[in-house]
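Let's study my pick:
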Amino acid sequence: MKNLHRYIFFIASVVFCPPSKIWGQTIPGDRNAVIHSKFRVATTTEADATDPAKALINIGYADGLGRDVQTIGYQQSPTNKDIVSNAVEFDKYGRVIRTALVAPTSSTTGTYQNSAFSLASSFYGDSYAFSATTSFDNSPLNRGREQYGAGNAWRTATKRVQSFDEAAGTDVRYYYLDGSGNIILSGNYPNNSLFKKRTIDEQGHTSIEISDTRGRLIQKQIQDDTGFITTYYLYDGMGRIVAVIQPQGYELNTGILKNSAEWQKWVFGYEYDYRGRMHLKQVPAAGDEYMVYDKWDRLVWSQTALQREAGKWTFYKYDAFNREIIRGEKSESRGLAAMETEAWAWAGSRYESRTTSGIYYSYSNGYPQLFTDADIRQITYYDNYTDWVPAGMAFANGGTAFHTQYTEAQGSMVGSRSRSGVNNNWLVSVLYYDNKGRAIRTLSQNLFSQIEQLDTEYNQAGEILQVKKIHKNQSGTATTEITQNELDHTGRAKKVFHGIGITPIEVVRNTYDEIGRLTRKKIMPNNTYVASGTNIDGLQTIDLAYHLRGSLRGINLDNSGNAVPNSSEGDLFSYKLDYETAGFYDGNIGKQYWQGVNASNVATGIRDYTFAYDAAKRLASASYNIVNGENYSLSGITYDKNGNIKTLNRKGKSGTPPVGSTFGDIDILNYNYNGNQLNQVTDAVSGDHDVDFVPRGSGNYTYYTDGSLKSNENEGITLILYDTYLKQPKEIQLTGARKINYYYDGAGALLKTVYSTGEYWEYAGIIYKNGQPYQMPIPEGRAVYVSGAWQNEFFYTDHLGNTRVAYKANGTALTKTSETSFDPWGVVLKDAGLVNTFQNRFEYQNKEKESTFNLRRISFGARTYNASIGRFDGVDVLADEPEQVDKGPYTYNWNNPIRNIDPDGRAVTPLIGAILGAAVEYGTQVATNALKNGKLDSDAFTKNINFTAIGLAAAEGAATQGASAGRKLLAKAAVTVANNVVSVGIDDNGQFKGTVETNGANVVKNTALDAMSDLATGGVLNPIVKGKASNVIKKAAGSEGNKLASGVKTILRKSGVDITRKVNNTVKQTSKNIVKQVPEKIGDAAENTVKIVTSKPKDEIKEKGNF
């Protein structure tokens, strides 16, 4: 077949060049190739597209049928060797039967690799360094029956994913909604009238999905230790989801009357207005949420059950381009029907316009009306900087920037106003861009009304080279912080420099392996320090090791792979995770080892937990290996069908409280519920052991109608008052006249915490305590303010982001400042470490613990978590997402806190950092395409996509648990990668048009979402991007991305949650049917990880996600 070469490369826009113009690689004459070059340096020389020092070059090879067979990252290893990825093998029917793991080569020419599978086996030291589909159903659908992930251990133990497509029998109940909205149980479906998808995972556990002839999910079952956890879905005549029965409700085996007690406990309910827009959503324990739309399909009012108690509604207002510009809360006693009637009858203006005073928008032209500017909480500005920018916040006021401002900001979000809860003043933020649409300067007012400045320097590829922050305190005194990155030829950070009020010094030096995984971090590398009499090179050397499937295996392991700190390097900590070697082949962690050192730099002995899970992958026990008489075991953990904890036993430091001297039972807990809400917890062990659960009084919990915690006698909380707009606590009243007050801005960011003791904390870039600087985050740790100067303190963190060891340089001496260990639920192991004399309230997953009154509350942002009982105290706002409806809305990390994280209290994600890195890298590239082309079409998803960069982002993401993604977000502004398959465009009038893809076959064929995930789970990254794709992008800092995102929101509101549910289910199927090496739950991982990354603005992602 004729050899075809095509070259695509980035400058400021997409440029196509004739192949005769570029030739720097060795392309075999019998191979078809597509070469992608993305410039990393500014140039006017076309030939630079072939120089790997100036461009990131990827070569995609295809066979004679046009099928992608492998991708070469041209000279992309740290030693300038080629990297091969996406190498696949087809059978005679054209089905992918093997996919090799990404591997380095010895080549430097970009040539095709005939031995990609051998290269992978050699690099990983495993003869099965590839995923494989070993059996198909031999039907025209070519569905995989048996799929093995990478790893010889899985083959030896015959651990694979098996899938069976069958006809359902007569054991599926038939529920329907009658004319009054009641759920009626009317026997069972007839035999062979439904489709059954049965999947057996690598651990041998079964899940079953039942769907009807229209492809709608009817019933989902997950195996547990007593049978199955069953969730049931009901639809109306138009195919819209109208109810979901949770597993505990399914156990009733009866019909459920609408709005009955059982309905409120166990049913998700949905109702739609006359245009088919979802206007009522009922979430178990959370009551009804109302949504009102105008005749242009824009959300104009919403109300939670908490707001209904207070007689308030949230309102939304828009500009001429249907962009939301104003949001706030108004006192209003009318109900849903009255509000809808008024909204639909509106005959006035469609939008508000800019003005030259006040809030610089009109707010009484369009609908809604009848509110004052005091009701407004958030304002967003677009297009220009005319009039509304306060004095002192013009671009020039920030001094010399790294880049030149591009003043044509049409279509971009250029700033905002947010109401301060401290003094009710406006806090203004202004964003400035260069001619590439990158945010180069942000000027924002902090809670002191002082101007904070953030300047960012980028290279040609949009990667961050330098960030300068200027913080100002109450009196306007400035503190300048500078962070600089030295990148290699592919954009990997080799060195990180940092300084506060000084010239930046090198604080981190990174080393990578030949496929780009981070393998070593040296902290303060340019100095020699002393660790207990031993000279060490650098303050700490942190070595990272990886599992074959991409997950973190450990840090500072010895040559035998054990958690043993290296005394010659002064290691303070070592950490190891076991997966299949501990008997778990499904991604669950079987054992966790760790070891610290004492003051003499002598290892203190390996501590470890051995974990057990039930068939639903929920933690059942954690057996502690007794060291020096310690025992911190957990046992007897049981759950109801919704995943609410029923019993939990905990051992720890006991004896005479509060300071015990022996080990024994400190908690024997029994939980009592009303539906999903916790009524009471009883403890058979008396006394307060400082970290455990302590029953007080009657031990009752009370709630508001939206499910938010109102009181908790066990912690002495008599009343919690909430900001109904933000759904955040604004005051906690405790026994003994104690009180805590919280103040936020209009977007929900915490500004200040005040205690009745007189203590107060303020958050303004720098964290202040009692008016004095206290700490700020820095690369690899924090800086603390001691005796009028900033001192760096660095951290060891585990795979969950917990700070395990903190240390600093005391002159030339290495000094450990803290060592903390946690049980699986986050309870500190009392006296198993060293307490920091300079308190760190952010040790657990970088979330702030409410420690002043020794409360067990840890703030995750959207909700507060109580580690002693393993539950959140509020309902998840994403509780009705498809992968969460079968779980209680208060559960923490789906009851698998060893494997999962919840970055902001709103959605759980299996902890596979590779997905995070890959998803953001891909989303960033799609965003670039769409924003440059002015439209989101198939080309945006398929052309000029740097697949090797995605693979490397995945590899680094796996190493750093998502830190690479954080850098991408900062480098290229926030990117939203939504989990709905949509096609969106903007017509000539600036109106949004689009469709939502609901056809499962098309989604399976076209979606690219889960293709990002397979590197982390044993396969090679294999992006399958044809036609439409399953991502919608938004560039939070400007241009058409905002319009596209707004359009998507409108379309999704019109379509209802049925679309989301269909798509999410199809996404899971995609990962199983196309990306063959992906285990059962990888669809969940990809979908939820992307959702976490993209659901919040970039600064909040950075703060909440511990990037």
User: Anything to note?
Assistant: The CA atoms of residues 454 and 515 lie 33 Å apart.
